[in-house]
């Protein structure tokens, strides 16, 4: 197997897993050399994983073809943790972070998007909503936690977290609505996966043709949903409209004000803030306060009620996520 066929996973997650492993697990010995620690069907040996952790190993590896099995196992682990009354200890956050990152990595790097991707995204957000209900401050930490090197993965997680925090700050306590807002935010940019991966990491202004290609991403995203069975219409609307602006200067349809679907208006605020503050090409473009000031200088683009709620959310007194 070549190095590129392995994908990095987090050792911590195994400390809570039980039962048989549905995939092989490898450790990296040298940049070029991996060795198999466990094979598919082996029992999850907590003691051995703890030993590797004690020796300083943080990352393990699976074959990239097994990513789905790994995501499924992580998801089952989270469900078990959430159901166990000991609600969301640190380990569960770690597993949830891993589920978010792996689900998005598959979309943006492996370029796989199907019914199961949607299901995983919904499941991730359902867990986020439970976290939000219990401790909004901790949800904010997800943004710092996202270690994945892929900009789109980090950006999508941050957009989902900010959208959920804003959704709740704007007095939306309905869990179904929050799930639409969060899942919409997590998947809003799936169309970007149809563009070259490095287009987001460029350390310069986009050229005319590059910018034209980027502007097609809402439509590209919608195309990706066409072949999927039962794609949620609410998420479709978020993908379609998240680049519209409240003052009618957005794209692709120049919708304005209340013509824009409410969850898409929330995602527009969260998306913009995330895009300005998420590290790309090794650095963040703006600090949280600079990003907020910039958005306020262009506040006509955003729903005024939402901008007020978002500003309040990030104000120093209540600042938990910035
Ligand atoms: Fe976008």
Folded structure, characterized:
- The protein has helices spanning 46-54, 67-83, 90-108, 115-134, 136-145, 151-169, 175-187, 208-214, 217-226, 233-241, 262-277, 288-297, 304-314; strands at residues 6-10, 25-30, 33-38, 59-63.
- With 322 residues, it is mainly α.
- The chain has two domains: 1-69, no CATH class; 150-225 and 232-318, Hypothetical protein af1432.
- A two-stranded antiparallel sheet has the order 1-4. The chain has a two-stranded antiparallel sheet with strand order 2-3.
- Strand 2 and strand 3 (33-38) form a beta hairpin.
- Helix 2 packs antiparallel against helix 3 (90-108) and helix 3 (90-108) runs antiparallel to helix 4 (115-134).
- It is globular, with a radius of gyration of 20 Å.
- The termini are far apart.
- The structure holds fe (ii) ion (FE2).
- Fe (ii) ion (FE2) binds next to loops.
- Fe (ii) ion binds at residues 188-189, 217, 242-243, 271.
């Amino acid at each position: 197997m070549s190095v590129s066929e392995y994908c990095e996973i987090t050792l911590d997650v195994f400390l809570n897993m039980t039962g048989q492993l549905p995939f092989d697990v490898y450790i990296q010995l040298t940049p070029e050399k991996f060795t198999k620690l466990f094979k598919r069907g082996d029992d999850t040996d907590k003691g051995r994983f703890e030993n590797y952790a004690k020796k300083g190993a943080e990352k393990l590896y699976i074959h990239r073809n097994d990513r789905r099995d790994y995501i499924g196992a992580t998801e089952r682990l989270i469900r078990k943790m959430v159901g166990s009354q000991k609600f969301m200890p640190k380990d569960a956050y770690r597993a949830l972070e891993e589920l978010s990152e792996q689900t998005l990595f598959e979309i943006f790097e492996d370029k796989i998007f199907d019914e199961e991707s949607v299901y995983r995204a919904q499941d991730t957000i359902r867990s986020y909503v439970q976290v939000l209900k219990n401790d909004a401050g901790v949800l904010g930490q997800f943004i710092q936690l996202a270690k994945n090197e892929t900009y789109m993965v980090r950006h999508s997680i941050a957009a989902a977290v900010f959208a959920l925090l804003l959704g709740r700050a704007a007095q939306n306590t309905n869990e179904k609505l929050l799930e639409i807002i969060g899942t919409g935010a997590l998947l809003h940019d799936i169309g970007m996966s149809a563009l070259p991966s490095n287009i987001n990491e460029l350390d310069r202004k986009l050229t005319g043709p590059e910018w034209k290609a980027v502007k097609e991403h809402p439509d590209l995203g919608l195309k990706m949903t066409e072949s999927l069975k039962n794609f949620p219409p609410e998420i479709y609307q978020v993908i379609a409209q998240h680049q519209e602006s409240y003052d009618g200067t957005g794209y692709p349809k120049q919708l304005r004000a209340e013509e824009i679907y409410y969850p898409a208006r929330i995602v527009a605020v969260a998306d913009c803030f995330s895009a300005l503050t998420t590290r790309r090409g090794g650095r963040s473009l703006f600090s949280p306060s600079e990003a907020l000031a910039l958005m306020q200088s262009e506040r006509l683009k955003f729903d005024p009620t939402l901008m007020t709620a978002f500003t309040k959310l990030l104000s120093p007194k209540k600042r938990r996520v910035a």
